[in-house]
């Protein structure tokens, strides 16, 4: 029996309008022309590629190998999320989405990836020969990163979260740098697979970067107002239980900013007619 994800050599036996048909031992597999470049392999020619079963449970063969394989990690794009099953990824196989089991996803569903997010995964098969995508951990992801230069301090970068840990999130930048985002530096909580727009707040001798999604000092007023507005928009009731008489410690605990910053941001939002402050209650989103 063939194993999904194996790289094997096949012989081209036939050509039809939409696909070539190749043979491995006594098994005929479909090689879709989608993704192939002309001229197509000739009948009788040997080709190397990946073996898999498509969403119609038909054996297929693909010569353009995805980055995610049984022996290698690569990025997959989330194309579907099922709360009872997990996430499904497009890793580059024709007519095939590969699942990430819900057992590998965070316990808190707000931290699950969304459609369009990216996950760093390696393929595996189970005893039923089903193909799965397994999430990378820090030690595995390190092999796919490179040392960042010290000159990046205070620069803006984009990075994708590949693992959530107790005190923050691990990410890899577009350039391939290993990054860490502490929970105290998150403007709002991040999710697995999210592509972050962040800034570098520290560089390490080993090339790792510390990031922040919080605004710079000169951007703080606008940033604090934006943060409060986003929190209100995400709340089903459009309510935040803070007001101008709230204790500074309560404001710091909920928003991570001082009472002075809070009052300036609230004043800004009220002037724009975006929120209403009810004495003794809190802030309400104006709809």
TrEMBL record:
Residues 5-57 form the Conserved virulence factor B first S1 domain. Residues 143-215 form the Conserved virulence factor B third S1 domain. Pfam families: CvfB_1st, CvfB_2nd, S1_2, WHD_CvfB. Residues 73-133 form the Conserved virulence factor B second S1 domain. Residues 227-284 form the Conserved virulence factor B-like winged helix domain. Coiled coil: none annotated. It comes from the Bacteria. Belongs to the CvfB family. This is DNA-binding protein.
